[in-house]
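Before our next group meeting I need something from you. Please put the record directly below this note.
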Amino acid sequence: MKKNLIILAEILVLFVFLRSDFAAYFLDDLRAATADKIEAIATMPERRELQKLRDSIRPHIANMNDAQKSYLEDVTENKDKLNRFYYLYCVNKDLNPYVYGANLVYFCGEVSRMGLVSS
């Protein structure tokens, strides 16, 4: 009987603790940190491919101005942005105010060559 009371008291203390604001804050931080780490692990191959693309275009874009370089860094941040850019400006030939002419042709060629766009 004494064991049952101790177990019941432990469950009650645990229940009260888990309903407290401190526990909610702590568990939310733990959940967020875990989710961030899982996302980082899941996107690691994608980030490596995009880094290879950035490394391959870096010598060619060295003569661009800072706004153009920043724009291409933003475009190569993730595959969704890269796919959107590729289909708008490489496939559909829409006008891009930052990257155009030989730079656009080179960038589109590199993206296509590396197979980074989904069909």
Summary: The chain is about 75% helix and 0% strand. The chain has two domains: 2-42, 44-114.
